[in-house]
């Protein structure tokens, strides 16, 4: 079924999908952390993490976390009584802030890596 | 200005095979005419079997709610000049279709009954009517304008996936009575709407607000209900 999107439903679906991805990421994250038992294992795993593909994945993860945080903040503010007439403004502003923070973050990240 | 519009209508004919098909009609309409005028022209001059609901044709009864170009609207309130040349019309999403654009609204009205849509006040009535001040009336004014067309509930993604969910329309009705100063059954009403299919399933998606032909900010009302429920200690989860 096709139905027209609007900024409210886009914010909701973003929040949902990023939430599901983060759940799986956290499981993977804890799984990796549980293998960092001694210096040898640590160095081994950290060497894998230097893979450029994983570095790129980290940038995507950063974007996902930002989107989830700001979509969640918008809903929290609405639930706490910020007027719903600002919901669209908040969604657009949130998207803007996510974009700006991601670009800044990526700049620092790439400076460190390259 | 007179222009030709193509009406692409999703037909559902239970006695034919295939049951579902898309029909196209070319209709000449001027820029003051609405989608409903186009449908009536099609029914009168091209295909008499086309079925749709209409009553008042002035945005008051809520019979002609349908999905027009991917969004629920009243056909009698949508001017063709605001739409592109190709107008796609489907019945309201997620309700069982009876024929063409007519859906079975039973489920929708059952939800409405679940929130006790009547005044409950055990106190003996005064000599004349129960007085309500203009300020008190103003609190529920927006929710009273609901015409129960079903656009909101059928545009809600939560309702698409879970037919048990009360839906924006029924919750708006609950608001109308919960915030009515003459009504005394606050506890009973909150109990009815804070179950697992009640207000906590609203995720503030705002699809209902987008489609409401009376421009009611339904999500605002549901958020107020949530705050009231928390204040009164109804945290939901179990019946």
Question: Outline of this structure?
Answer:
Chain A is built from four helices and no strands.
Summarize the structure in words.
The complex is a heterodimer of chains A (114) and B (239). Chain A has a single domain (7-113), classed as 3 helical TM bundles of succinate and fumarate reductases (Up-down Bundle). Chain A starts with 6 loop residues before the first helix and ends with a helix. Helices cover 82% and strands 0% of the residues of chain A. In chain A, helix 1 packs across helix 3 and helix 3 packs antiparallel against helix 4 (87-113). With 114 residues, chain A is mainly alpha-helical. Chain B folds into 2 domains: 2-103, Beta-grasp domain (Ubiquitin-like (UB roll)); 106-231, Fumarate Reductase Iron-sulfur Protein, Chain B, domain 2, CATH 1.10.1060.10. With 239 residues, chain B is of the alpha+beta class. Chain B has a 5-stranded mixed sheet with strand order 2-1-5-3-4. Chain B has a two-stranded antiparallel sheet with strand order 6-7. The radius of gyration of chain B is 20 Å and the shape is elongated. The mean pLDDT of chain B is 93. Chain A binds chain B through residues 1-4, 6-9, 12, 75, 78-79, 81, 83-85, 87, and chain B through 67, 69-71, 93-94, 155, 157, 160, 203-207, 209-210, 217, 219-220, 223, 226-227.
Outline the fold blueprint.
The complex is a heterodimer of chains A (114) and B (239).
Chain A: H1 7-33, H2 39-49, H3 52-79, H4 87-113
Helix pairs in contact in A: 1-3, 3-4
Chain B: E1 2-12, E2 20-30, H1 35-45, E3 65-68, E4 71-74, E5 86-90, E6 97-99, E7 102-103, H2 106-114, H3 134-144, H4 151-155, H5 157-161, H6 167-178, H7 186-193, H8 207-211, H9 218-231
Parallel strand pairs in B: 1-5
Antiparallel strand pairs in B: 1-2, 3-4, 3-5, 6-7
Helix pairs in contact in B: 2-6, 3-6, 6-7, 6-9
């Amino acid at each position: 079924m096709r139905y027209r999107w609007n900024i409210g439903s886009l914010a909701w679906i973003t929040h949902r999908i990023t939430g599901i991805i983060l759940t799986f990421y956290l499981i993977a994250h804890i799984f990796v952390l549980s293998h960092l038992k001694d210096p040898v294992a640590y160095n081994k795993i950290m060497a894998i993490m230097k893979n450029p593909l994983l570095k790129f994945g980290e940038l995507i993860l950063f974007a996902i976390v930002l989107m989830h945080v700001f979509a969640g903040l918008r809903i929290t503010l609405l639930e706490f009584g910020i007027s719903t007439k600002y919901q669209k403004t908040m969604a657009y502003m949130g998207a803007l802030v996510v974009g700006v923070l991601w670009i800044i973050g990526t700049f620092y990240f790439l400076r460190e890596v390259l | 200005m007179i222009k030709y519009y193509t009406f692409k209508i999703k037909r559902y004919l239970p006695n034919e095979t295939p049951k579902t098909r898309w029909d196209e009609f070319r209709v000449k309409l001027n820029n003051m005419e609405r989608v409903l005028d186009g449908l009536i022209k099609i029914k009168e001059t091209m295909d008499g079997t086309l079925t749709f609901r209409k009553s008042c044709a002035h945005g008051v009864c809520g019979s002609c709610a349908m999905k027009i170009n991917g969004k629920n609207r009243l056909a009698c309130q949508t001017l063709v000049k605001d739409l592109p040349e190709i107008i796609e019309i489907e019945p309201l999403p997620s309700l069982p279709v009876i024929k063409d654009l007519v859906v079975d609204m039973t489920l929708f009205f059952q939800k409405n009954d679940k929130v006790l849509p009547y005044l409950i006040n055990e106190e003996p009535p005064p000599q004349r009517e129960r007085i309500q001040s203009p300020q008190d009336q103003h609190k529920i004014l927006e929710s009273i304008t609901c015409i129960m067309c079903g656009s909101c509930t059928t545009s809600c993604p939560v309702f698409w996936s879970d037919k048990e969910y009360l839906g924006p329309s029924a919750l708006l009705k609950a608001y109308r009575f919960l915030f009515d100063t003459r009504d005394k059954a606050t506890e009973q009403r909150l109990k009815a709407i804070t179950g697992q299919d009640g207000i906590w399933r609203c995720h503030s998606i705002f699809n209902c607000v987008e489609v409401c032909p009376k421009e009611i900010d339904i999500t605002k009302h549901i958020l107020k209900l949530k705050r009231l429920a928390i204040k009164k200690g109804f945290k939901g989860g179990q019946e």
